[in-house]
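Appendix B.2, paired examples.
Example (i):
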Amino acid sequence: MPTSLLDFLAGGLIQAGPWTLAIYFLVATQLTIFSVTLYLHRSQAHRGVDFHPVLAHFFRFWTWLTTSMITKEWVAIHRKHHAKCETEDDPHSPMYKGIKTVFWRGVELYREARAQRADIEQYGKGAPSDWIERRLYTPFATMGPTVLLLLSFALFGFKGVAIWAIQMAWIPFWAAGVVNGLGHWWGYRNFETTDTATNLTPWGVWIGGEELHNNHHAFPSSAKFALRKWEFDIGWAAIKLLEKVRLAKVLRVAPTLDVRPNIHVPDADTMKALLAHRFQAMTDYQRNVLAPALREEARAAGAKLRALLPRKLRKGMVDDGRWLKPDAREQLRSWVAQRPRIRTLVEYRARLSALLEARTQNAAESLHNLQAWCREAEASGIRALQDYAARLKGYSLQSARA
């Protein structure tokens, strides 16, 4: 306890030492991270997991207390990000707004998105709208951090004020800056999604598993972000622990891909699996068809692959140079046009991508087009393409296999 006013100002009521302050800070910030990734993101925005009402309300209260974010607004902005990803309407795309803007001014972008009230109503459906949300959390959103500031000062003195200031910057920096910015600019990709999302690290620990951003964009409704054996998602570990004590119920995870042997014609199971794993299919095409063909081109030319085609252009080949600058895109197209075998493989990739992305076709028409694509691929005379088509025909969701 403080013995004088100066002692109180320096250390508050608790007079905590450095280790106590450090532990408090880590626990408090990780609770905030979990409130965002588990409740706002995986539960409210994507409906991948449900929490016990008491726990769900604790997450909501903690978010109000430590961030002033309103559930409906956060959910709406995030859903719009997925719906309009990497377009001019994306609330925080580094491709359009610039990596420096998203990284350092993420809070401003969030405020601008909040002001789009029509979007909030459109994309925020299903968010909490009970009495406490209408009477406290929404109209008095900034009261939460104000209460936290007073508590921090009372408990820890001016040290508490410093900790509070860092807490206020925690989510804006790590979520709005690192995930929204670096998560679409730098890292590795398990899946060739139609956006630029990347995994920042295979071990999602520091920011609750949000580091596995490419995985999330491949399977947005999955409550589990780690999708490779070497990856770890601490958020999923927390969900499984909460599930064991009946505080959480997992609703959706990414379906498991199976490959059936000796399937001669794509069937309904194939189509169902491809629609669920379309990004995996395109990733397999890039790694098992296009990449080997490029290496063969380099060997035939007696040159290093990087000399034959710069890495940036090789990456651009995945999506026909969508994210390249116009001059680089034209350079890539010219390079491909001069190589008939590569051009054929790029055309097959584009046709398959269009087939899997189509949403207007009925099931029978989609299956017919897939069967035609496989027949033509097997008749192409290109071994890698033939092998890919043979494997593609066997795609199935694990539960569909007898």
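Example (ii):
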Amino acid sequence: MNEVLLLAGTRKGLFIGRRRGSGPWELEGPHFNAQAVSAVAIDGRGPAPRLLAGGDSPHWGPSVFSSDDLGATWQEPPAPAIRFPRDTGASLERVWQLHPAGPEAPDVVYAGTEPAALFRSTDRGTSFELVRPLWEHPTRSAWVPGGGGEGLHTVITDPADRAAVTVAVSTAGVFRTRDGGAGWTPSNHGVAAVFLPDPHPEFGQCVHKIAQDAGNRDRLYLQNHWGVYRSDDAGGTWSDIGSALPSDFGFAVAAHPHRPGTAYVFPLNADIDRVPAQHRCRVFRTGDAGAHWEPLTKGLPSGDHYGTVLRDALCTDDADPAGVYFGNRNGELYASHDDGDSWRQLAAHLPDVLCVRAAVLH
């Protein structure tokens, strides 16, 4: 019997949900009580799944924790897992992203941080090293923090090429490497920066999240600060696919794990009104790579709703049909077990939900 594992990082701890077969959900926590957990990951590549969490203690600062027993116990490395080298003059403020690479790099885990930097681990997340060429990129002096800070919040690896990595930074934009991190290229052609004097700069876009298509590794979906985009050339160029949505402002985007051309977004009213578009709790799905979008509402609140979904708080698992999950700043957690066609509420009154990840344990 398969089991679905769901991690929900919140402003005050980590909650873990489990569902065995078609049974009910069980939710427990919080782990890391009173700590903000802004990044979580489920690494299923080893003999047993490894859970990773980016915690932030108000007393001891940010750290990365791991669990090899599905969250029953957690370990913190004896030395800080992520530490900026002394010569950078920087210190870790937050872990924004934890991303296990694919089978092409069995023990590699990437971490995105604030200040915006990429770190790489070769021991499944126990210790990390700074990817210096991105930290020392010639555009870096002109990177400007977004409203939530200057964070590297998205890492995408290529299952067919371990040397190819795509990252996104708020607010510097998308950067790509094709040589294992030795060189990085801004990859924002077509993405607008409406808040800048030049709305189409080489870099400086406020990218909120990127997701990779299930059937085409070169197809990416991007939720921008105003604008939903698609790239069919691994980020080389981008085209607008958000015109059919009630708003093209939002934070989150996720891709279906198996269906090519299928992705999900959660539109918000505006950058100065960050609540669900038209005050409706709706996930929107495209099945044709953004040509059309449909609202998914069955089982979601039908009245006025004000729960904002943040950039890492919408995800899919790897089931078929897929599970789709999101949490919001109202402390609500929702799940769908049928590709998003219908929903159920798993929890209410949690602290602000910052991030969610889910996987099927075989």
